[in-house]
Write a structure and sequence with these properties.
CATH architecture: Orthogonal Bundle
Helix content: 55-70%
CATH superfamily: Winged helix-like DNA-binding domain superfamily/Winged helix DNA-binding domain
Distance between the termini: 35 Å
Number of strands: 2
Strand order of the largest sheet: 1-2
Order of helices and strands: HHHHEEHH
Strand content: 5-15%
Largest sheet: 2 strands, antiparallel
Radius of gyration: 20 Å
Length: about 160
């Protein structure tokens, strides 16, 4: 009796392209961030805290792409560099607010626009219609995954 052969799933080419795109973005973005003396995670925290009065670690974790365990170390290193400070949270006696120091705000004002310009150079290779189509396609993929996750949790 012949062995059944598994057909490749029809979504695999899309999945491969999504992963390759993310990896290409990370290489392009991280290289520039590192050239400015920051890790991608440090840049993420600076960019999130920039132009704010600060936020508690839970809020910071929700707004960045950094896990809770990693976030503590990133904030520790930024604090050691004098770029962030931890202050008591006036609305929660046990909590803290993480806020940029004046030096951190100055650095944010330099690196954020510089990195935005760096990313703009790559995305300028796509015309407006291509950017809109890519955004729509990525939204559709994200929504499909969110819906599958929500219904999968109920199964």
């Amino acid at each position: 009796m012949p062995k059944p052969t598994a057909k490749p799933a029809p979504f695999l080419p899309l999945l491969r392209e999504l992963v390759r795109t993310y990896q290409a973005f990370e290489r392009y973005s991280a290289g520039h961030v590192q050239s400015m003396g920051l890790t991608p995670a440090q840049f993420d925290v600076l960019a999130t805290l920039g132009n704010t009065k600060g936020m508690n670690p839970g809020q910071l974790g929700q707004r960045t792409l950094i896990t809770k365990g990693t976030l503590t170390g990133v904030v520790d290193r930024l604090q050691a560099k004098g770029l962030v400070q931890r202050l008591p949270d006036p609305s929660d006696g046990r909590g803290q607010i993480v806020r940029l120091t004046p030096e951190g705000q100055t650095l944010f004002e330099q690196v954020f626009p510089a990195h935005g310009a760096h990313l703009a150079r790559a995305f300028a290779r796509l015309d407006a219609a291509q950017r809109a189509a890519a955004e729509q396609a990525l939204q559709s993929v994200r929504l499909a995954l969110e819906q599958a996750s929500a219904t999968g949790a109920a199964e």
